[in-house]
Amino acid sequence: MRASAYPLVDAAGAAALVLQHTPVLGTETVALADAYGRVLAADLVASSALPPHPASAVDGYAVRAADAGRTLRVVGESAAGRPLSAHVDAGTAARILTGGVVPEGADTIVMVEDTRVDGESVTVPDGLKAGTNLHRPGSDLRAGERVMPAGTQLGPAEIGLAAALGAPRLQVHRRPAVALMSTGDELVEVGETPGPGQIPDSNRWALLAALREAGADVRLLGIAPDRAEDLRKLVIGALREADALVTSGGVSVGTHDLVKPLLESLGTVHIGRVKLKPGKPFTFATVFPSPASGAQIEREQRVHAAPGAQGQGEGKRLAFGLPGFPVSSLVTFEVFVRPALRKMQGFAQLQRPSLPVRLGFHAQAVGDRTEYHRVTLRREGAELVATSTGSQSSSRLMSLAGAHALVRVPPGDQGISAGSVVEALILALP
Ligand code: AMP
Ligand code: MG
Predict the structure, then answer these.
(1) Fewer beta carbons below 10 Å: N end or C end of the chain?
(2) What is the pTM of this model?
C-alpha cells in the first residue's frame, strides 16, 4: 500500500504549500483585442490627462458666465474634433457640440434648449454658473496618475481606459499552458457507447471548463490507460510543452493507481494525501520536463533563481493529480489548482470571494477532515441563506451542479449548527 507513505496534511497547509511551489509566469505584450481577461503585469500609468482638453458635455453655446441674461454675438462653432480657434470675449458666444473643445475665454456651456437664437445672435438665461456642462481637463485622470495596479484583471472598462489613454498594447502575464489527462481503463470517449463496466470520461470536459475559467491555455491529452509505461510516455511528452499537468484518477491506493509513483520518479511529490472531503487522495508534485535533466536543472535553478523566470523551457513544472471521482476532482481543482493558476497569471486576488451566509441546515463534520459542503443560496431580507445540495457523495455531480457556494466545515465532531453565520466561498450568486 504505497499511499500510506504519504502523511495526511491538513487542507489549509496543503493549499499554502501548493502556492509556495507555484511560480509567477513571465510577461508578454498583447494587443487590446486580445487583452480581455488577462492580468496586467505592470501598473498602468496615465501618459496624458483625461479628458485631454476642456470638453462640452452637451450641445449648446460656450459663453462667459458673467454674460448671463444678455444677447451675444455668435463667433463660430466648435464641434468634436474641429476646435474653434476664435476667442470667446465678453458679449460673444460660440456654438458648441457635445465633445467639442471649449474655446478659450468661455467658462460655461448653456444648453441649446435654454437659449433663444436669432440669426447670428443668441440670448442666454440669467444666473449662469462657471464650469457648468463641461468636463475639465484631467477631471477623470491627471497625467502621471496610477490608473490600475499590476495584478488587475482586464475587463471591458479597464481595456476602454487603456485605449482612451492611447495604449494600443498592454503588458500582461503569460497564461499557463496546462496539459489535461484522464486516467483509467474504464473510461471511454463521451459519445461512444460504453461497454460492460465502462463509463464516459466526464472529468475531461468538466476540468477543461474549470481550467479555462481559471485562465489556462489547455492541451487535451485524452485518456491514459492504467499501464505504467503508456502513462509515463504521455506525461513526459506533455511536460515538455506545458507549465502544469492536471490528471484525474489513479491516485488512490489500488494497484492500478499509477500516478503517484510516476510523479515520484519524475520529481518530488509534496502532497500525497489531504485531510479533505471530498479529495483525500489529492496529489501535488513538482516535476521536470525530461527525467534525465532533473538534477542538472535543479543546479541551474539554484544559480539563476530569478522569480517569474520559470515557465515553458527547462524549468520545473507543477503536477496536480486529482482524484477520479467527479466531485473530488472539481473540488480539489477549486481548492488547490485554481488559486495556483491565478498566481501564475499574476492575479492580485487568488481566492474566490467570500460572503457571510446563514446555514439553513446542520452541517455535519467529518472526523479529521475539512469538508467543502456544496450549497445553494437564496436571499432572505438582507441575508443569504444556504441550503445543502443534498447527498455530498464524491461521485454525485448533482451536489455541485447549480451550487452557489462552498461552505468549509472544519474537522472535529461539532459540525456547524443550523442558523450559524459562516463565510462561504462564492461560486456564483443566485
Ligand atoms: P480512481 O481515482 O482512478 O480510483 O477513480 C475513482 C472513481 O472515479 C472511479 O469510480 C472512476 O471510475 C471515476 N473516474 C475516474 N476518472 C474519471 C473520469 N475521467 N470521468 C468520470 N469518472 C472518473
Ligand atoms: Mg482509476
Answers:
(1) N
(2) 0.91
